[in-house]
Amino acid sequence: MRKVVGGLIQMSNPLNDPNASVAKISAAMLDKHLPYIEEAGKKGVQLLCLQEVFNSPYFCPSQDAKWCDIAEPIPGPTIALMQKLAKKHEMVIIVPIYEREMAGVYYNTAAVIDADGSYLGKYRKNHIPHTSGFWEKFFFKPGNLGYPVFKTRYATIGVYICYTTGTSPRVLACSACTVRKSSSIRRLR
Hints:
By secondary structure, this protein is of the alpha/beta class. It has 4 helices and 10 strands; from the N terminus they run βαβαβββββαββαβ. Helix 1 packs parallel to helix 2. The protein starts with 5 loop residues before the first strand and ends in a 7-residue tail after the last strand.
């Protein structure tokens, strides 16, 4: 049996100013994560998972289109930064962000970066809940990539995000995954 040292990071929003721009809020979220990512690397974490849409607060209780301004392509600037950190610490990093594929087409996506810093691919959340208090369909399209499996340096992994739980664990298990990552399973720091 192989031992893989895993790490999970979940943060609260450090900038709860309703007048702050979404770019400033996103930068504050990223800045708050960086020391913990560095700490994980120094402690020997091999597979680090960040929370759903890690570089912003969970904005889906609103229906405010301003949050579309933080969406970015994958790969893009946030993923490029995480690639450098993954390579520096020889650590696989799962990076969930708000993805902009093109104008008006947005996904709740997790990029997978290998321990050498290479971008392996992405998973787009398939099941998008839309209930009172969770207006995810206002922001995200359902994923269109299925349940990809990624061969990383330390394990073969599958990723799913929060409510995408129906058949995804079975699909990933049948795909020979040695680790499944759900950003709804988190340890609070």
